[in-house]
Write a structure and sequence with these properties.
The protein is of the alpha/beta class and about 500 residues long. It has two domains: about 280 residues, Glycogen Phosphorylase B (Rossmann fold); about 210 residues, Glycogen Phosphorylase B (Rossmann fold, 3-Layer(aba) Sandwich). The chain is built from 16 helices and 18 strands. A ten-stranded mixed β-sheet has the order 5-6-4-1-7-8-9-12-11-10, with helices on both faces. The two termini are about 45 Å apart. Bound molecules: GDP-alpha-D-glucose.
Amino acid sequence: MPSDLVIVYHRQPYEEVVVNGKTEYRENKSPNGIVPTLKSFFGRVDKGSWVAWKEAEDPANPDFERVIEIDDQYGKYTVSRLPLTAEQVSSFYHVSSKEAFWPILHGFKERYNYDPVDWPTFREVNWAFAEAAANEAAEGAVVWVHDYNLWLVPGYLRTLRPDVKISFFHHTPFPSADMFNALPWRKEILESLLACDVVGFHIPRYVNNFVSAARSLLEVETMKREKVKPEMNAVTSALSEQSVVTELDFEGRRIRLQASPVGVDVAYIETLAASPETEEKVAQIKAEKGDTKLVLSVGRTDYTKGGIEQLESFERLLESNPNLRGTLRLMHVSVAANANMTAYQEIQEQLEALAGRINGRYGTFEYQPVALISRPVPFTDLIAYYRAAEVAWITPLADGMNLVCKEFCAARTDGDGVLVLSEFAGAAVELGAAVPTNPFSHRSMDSGILYALELPEEDRRGRMKENRAMVAQHDVRFWAEDQMQAFERNTVTSDVAAE
Ligand code: GDG
């Protein structure tokens, strides 16, 4: 039976476990993240499908069933597993997406590596995703495609199935034309995205950047522009915009552009935060740290996350404030998602060298200033650290949204704790009550963390109250609803004149 809703996402929506030689499909151990929210939409349609890839030695003859039926608490849905060889995955995902697109999306032209990109393979894999989605979709179905590694899917899908409604969501930033056009495939990518009915981004800045790139190469016309709502326009952020384009015309078709910030599952995080196990873990951490203050930093090992710049700032802090030696600790959780990629290995080595140097310079037998954690911390423990820390120090150089800062606020049901947040994280446009910091400036990084450490309780609570309200308002369900409702919004009138 064809599906009314097809989600195209790189990861499979469950864990595959082999028990006594038989494959079982289990719900992800941690219901954290956007996958459960996406699956919850299957409960609203007669039939849903999920398209993801699965590695196969011989894609023409995979050693697994291509299409399987899942029946879980979210309802019945189909998962179509696209068989790809290890070489195809490496080429389209690890090389083209991570070495060429990722640096450009985040504004790092100097890290961009064009040479190893195999564009025909990128096209081939994207075509295969589009075909799989086309096979699953019912007449007039909604197909929701996720992220830049599937950039060409909308264009191919439009050719295969002119009847379906296509929505595409970018989880990364979208850069301005000056940066985006460094990609030689720029026109092909933009034409594909303009085949969508809805193109979604986290924040208005990325929408306007997309429009600037599209206008630089194609005859697109701005049909509507709206004033940005105050809750998406914190003046402390480097990413604020006053107005945002919400509708384009391209070759006679209307395309809705939508800024919907991804949020976290506040209800789930609050339940975890209230559990006796978490309380016990928090008490244990607090007893262990005694009077020392804990600054917490969590993120993937990636140059965009600003880990090096943060450790350097922490070193300067201890250097110029001898009173902080012995009384301040930094827990820096940095987990590698792509451990075998050279760029990430280099960052890991630099983080280790810096943490070692700081501990060597300022540590004693009893006191270690930096705890560098390279292995994933269980999510339940992470919640306990969020609750036990005095400060969350989240300082990416560029970040589409950043969910860690939102998880921190959601976990602080006690109303205390200070968030220091980079002006360059998408979340900064919403979290105007965070202490802003500019990771490109030593002075701003050093004064931001010092300011947070010295903030009186009343101010801490005032800021946290505001941030928590925003995180609750823009939770993960708000994001998904907002994206899905965009199909119906093409008739909204604007209060700022169209250009
Ligand atoms: C992309 C965009 C955008 C991290 N360490 C551990 C751990 N984590 C979890 C966090 C959080 C997630 O990983 C990281 O989310 P982010 O949003 O910070 O970053 P990306 O992975 O880069 O995600 C980003 C996002 O997509 C959504 O659209 O916000 O900008 O780059 O949930 O908790 N979880 C556990 N242990 C760890 O050690 N359990």
